[in-house]
Amino acid sequence: MCRNSSNSEMVASKKSTLEKSTLEKITLEEVLDIEKNMSQWVVNPPDPPSMLRQVVDNIKDILVPHPHPNTFSSLRNQPFSKRAFAFFKNLFPILASFQNYNAQKFKCDFMAGLILAIFAIPQCMGNATLAQLSPEYGLYTGIVPPLIYALLASSREMVIGPGSVDSLLLSSMIQTLKLPIHDSIGYTHLVFTVTFFAGIFQLAFGLFRFGFLVEYISQSTIVGFLAAAAVGIGLQQLKGLFGIDTNKTALFSVLKSLWTSFKNQSLWHPYNFVIGFSFLCFILFTRFLGKRNKKLLWLSHVAPLLSIIASSIIAYKINVHEHQVKDYRVEVLGPIKGGGSLNPSSFNQLIFDSKVVVHLMRIGLNIAIISFTGSIAVGRSFASLKGHSIYPNREVVSLGIMNIVGSLTSCYIASGSLSRSAVNYDAGSETVVSNIVMALTVLLSLKFLTGLLYFTPKAMLAAIILSAVPGLIDLKKAREIWKVDKMDFLACAGAFFGVLFASPEIGLAVGITISFAKIILTSVQPAIAVIGRLPGTDSFGDVQQYPMALNIPGVFIVSLKSAWLCFANANLVEEMIERWVNNEKGGESTFHHVIIDASSLTNIDTTGIASLVELNKNMTSRGVKLAIANPRWHVIHKLRLANFVSKIGGRVFLSVGEAVDACVTTKMVAV
């Protein structure tokens, strides 16, 4: 038995020795062929798609919807009833919510909808005044758009209605047209028309799958834009808080009006300020309590409505007893249209006059972009909290349809509200049914309770809007942007000051321009790093980031960190590499090989290729050989077409490690 064991061990030993010698033989005989084949893999890949093919594929990817589990192709063999339900469920996502709907979910949605209505009614009225419209138009906008959105949208938590930022932008942009508008009716017609065009643009963005455009507005730009809009909203509402009569909206104009009123006390009404400021403090205090104690959160939700009721009683008492003293009267809303069954039609009020229609379309485009950008951001935020996703293109289509229909039913621009969506989430809503309950409650209020709003102080509505301003200014996020990325903060500041001192359009354009400039500078700046081998590994890293990285004797390795090697940076890259090599030539160790790591390089133009040709010529004259490691598909394709690969003797490798091994063993394989 021992003999058999010994024999088997001898056989195994001989077999191992034979395999090892065979492996060594293969390694010695075929290593050159393997290296040559690997170089061939890099140098001779299939041709990349043409530019026309890439453009067509990109457009196709944008315009053609991706397959969805409920499409008819996946349900082809299913019964007709199931296919029909899948079709309508795709068309009206609310049907999916009803599949597992029950009494408990309806109870949650119903209570959330009532709380939303209590919170939304004062906000809708206040935002309408911010848009220079009568309060009833804010209530109209709180009815039809939420109902349509609930049927079509994929978001379950977002609440629709008039927004403070949209309202301010709408009024300020229309006023910049300087049209001869002599009454509120003409202005209202312009608002409806702008809303109509905004809806058309949003619908087009969604149908052509342009929802991705929201990704091109950076978060830093949005932070600066909203902060400046909040300052503008605050200044606007200070006029209402002090009871100042002025239609000016520009920063310095409003400040001048405030200063004039302070110097001349007859221009402002003290009771307006006392009422507005007192209830503003009350609303902010209830929010503070709600954040400190979740059990008191309901108080912050009902505080605006309680403030309207209490301030209306106070205004009634003051105006009745002080009716002979004008300076002590409280400015109130007065009569509000209501009592109808639903929003009145505004179809005949749209303006398509060739003299103004182009300007109104431009404003509509700006409002459309700003509106759906903010709405998708709100929808994504709350969807992530609930663990599901939204579909940007469907959301934009929903916004477009609801604004088109809204413009025909006396509504102005509606979008997703951050504050109301937060209330909806905190109230425990389960589905979009809470939007429907809210809209129906607002409708009942408009029909039966508008008479009670006669004595609502204008300063009270200003206070409600002012209470929302702190939520739009995210100082914490601005500090974080400054700390992490100074260029991002520059975009944030550009958007902020552009909106504040010029216009919303200019502010947004400044922020986007700076963001794109950052992308361009980052992609073309001549970022080069000297790299070395990390001890004990086959990895290579920047010698500045990893001081322990080891230099390879006789080999100089640089990594191109730019995405492009082009006319903007090619000459600088060439000069930097030559300067580094020349500086080292005077030392004890000289370089025999220069390896360029092109793994980060996504594209190259003719100027970039010319600079590499010149660099190779200069290196060759000094007895230094140039090699390229890990070039991308389009880069190696262009280098091959320009015959650069043959000019460097085919020294192209899959990785930096393989290039170093070839240089160290002086086995630079020519292709």
TrEMBL record:
Task: Kindly list the GO molecular function terms attached to this UniProt entry.
Answer: secondary active sulfate transmembrane transporter activity
Q: Per UniProt, which keywords does this protein have?
A: Membrane, Transmembrane, Transmembrane helix
| InterPro entries reported in the protein's UniProt record | S04_transporter_CS, SLC26A/SulP_dom, SLC26A/SulP_fam, STAS_dom, STAS_dom_sf
Q: Which PROSITE patterns match?
A: SLC26A, STAS
SUPFAM superfamilies on file: SpoIIaa-like (SSF52091)
- Record-annotated membrane-spanning stretches: 110-131, 187-208, 220-238, 268-289, 296-316, 363-383, 395-415, 435-455, 489-517
| Major site of localization recorded for this protein | membrane
Where in or outside the cell it occurs: the entry states:
Membrane
Q: How does it sit in the membrane?
A: Multi-pass membrane protein
Record domain STAS: where: 565-663
PANTHER family per the UniProt record, alphabetical: SULFATE TRANSPORTER
* UniProt-recorded name of the protein: STAS domain-containing protein
